[in-house]
Amino acid sequence: MSSATPITLDTEVLSTYLAQHIDGFKGPITATKFPGGQSNPTFLLETPDGKYVLRRKPPGELLKSAHAVDREYRVLSALADTPVPVAKVYHLCEDTDVIGSMFYVMEYIDGRVFFNPALPDVSKEERSRMYAEMSRVLAELHKVNVHEVGLSDYGRPGNYYERQVSRWTTQYKATETEVIPEMDAVIEWLAANTVEDDGQVCLAHGDFRLDNMMFAQHEPKVLALVDWELSTLGHPYADLAYQCMQLHLPNDGGVLPGLGGLDRQALGIPSEEEYVAMYCEHMGIDSIPNWNFYLVFGFFRFAAILQGVKKRALDGNASNAAQGLQLGELVKPLAQRAVALL
After folding, report:
1. 236-244 and 124-142 are packed helices; what angle lies between their axes, rounded to 10 degrees?
2. What pLDDT score was predicted for residue 37?
3. Do 49 and 24 meet the contact criterion of CB atoms below 8 Å apart?
4. What is the pLDDT of residue 5?
5. What is the C-alpha to C-alpha distance for residues 275 and 134, in angstroms, rounded to an integer?
6. Per-residue pLDDT tens for 73-90?
7. Partners of 89 in the beta sheet?
8. What CATH code is assigned to 124-341?
9. What confidence score (pLDDT) does residue 169 get?
10. How far apart are CA 189 and CA 194, in angstroms?
């Protein structure tokens, strides 16, 4: 295992560059890397006049389609005037000579970020309202007219699940560090049981979960949906099933807490059926057939993502190597949960 190189910024070069490309920007800059995240290293930039956030591609050799910060910048720009809450973006730098990789700068939002879906630090009433708000935001995202916002070519429409099963199988095999029989079983099952294309195409976030939302300080309102690295033209139920995976994961204090084993009714957290029904009401539909397939796919895809995280950690290219290895240990348990749903 190679040792990871700390990811730093040349703040003098960056300050000069941003002053030339962002209206009103004045250095000097203090840059602090946010501790979380395994995809694109994210920094808080503080200047005498205000705060900004910078997201960059990580250094090192990367998979071809990974870490596309230019896609993140594009989708955030496109959603600026929609009901979907997103951060305002200021500039995309494609010149890798500035700080060593492509990056973009966006506004700093002073919001609350929660990592435990049980939300132990808020009241029962606020918990319920936060889950209702998340379902609303997800539906607003899926209702965006991709043609009107200029994203009709943001992905390949149609046959979403067929393409996604193929893509993530390929990605998983490219980053495989050990043979996991459960993953092989899920891959085989998904290939044989992929749902037929129903014609639904939407902007899919790809990583829709609690800790990718920033809530207002004093109310259960989402100020910004963040981390758009995996967004594409996709199928709406992929995002919904992905978030519902947390209902099947244990709340054991681990690196990826879920809601399994908790009295969700007492906590004011909707059941899976209630959350899906909430979403359906926002979307104006009655129900979702083949729900089990979408859940199995969600577990498989997330396991494949975490396998990539593990491989980057082993190669010394992870944003947070220790956490990356910890997340990598979840690949097999996620695959086992998918197998249990087959």
Report:
1. 160
2. 56
3. yes
4. 43
5. 10
6. 999 999 999 999 999 999
7. 106
8. 3.90.1200.10
9. 96
10. 8
pLDDT at 1: 32
From CA 254, how far away is CA 262, in angstroms rounded? 15
Structure token digits, residue 268:
């004011």
* Secondary structure (H, E, C), the chain: CCCCCCCCCCHHHHHHHHHHHCCCCCCCCEEEECCCCCCCCEEEEEECCEEEEEEECCCCCCCCCCCCHHHHHHHHHHCCCCCCCCCCEEEEECCCCCCCCCEEEEECCCCECCCCCCCCCCCHHHHHHHHHHHHHHHHHHHCCCCCCCCCCCCCCCCCHHHHHHHHHHHHHHHHCCCCCHHHHHHHHHHHHHCCCCCCCCEEECCCCCHHHEEECCCCCCEEEECCCCCCEEECHHHHHHHHHHHHHCECCCCCCCCCECCCHHHHCCCCHHHHHHHHHHHHCCCCCCCHHHHHHHHHHHHHHHHHHHHHHHHHCCCCCHHHHHHHHCCHHHHHHHHHHHC
Residue written as token pair 């049980």: 118
State how far the alpha carbon of 32 is from the alpha carbons of 20, 48, 53, 254, in Å.
22, 15, 10, 26
Question: Do residues 106 and 52 lie in contact, with contact meaning Cβ atoms separated by under 8 Å?
Answer: yes
The half-sphere exposure of 291 on its side-chain side, counting CA atoms within 13 A, is 12
State the CATH class of domain 11-107. Answer: alpha beta
Q: Which residue has the tokens 């390949």?
A: 156
Between strands 42-47 and 89-93, the pairing is: unpaired
- 87 and 53 Cβ atoms separated by less than 8 Å: yes
Quick one: CA torsion of 329, 334, 339, 341, rounded to 10 degrees?
160
- What ranges do the domains of the chain cover? 11-107, 124-341
Which regions in the chain score pLDDT beneath 70? 1-7, 36-39, 59-67, 319
Token reading at 227: 């981390």
Tell the residue number behind the tokens 């197998």, with chain if given.
Answer: 339
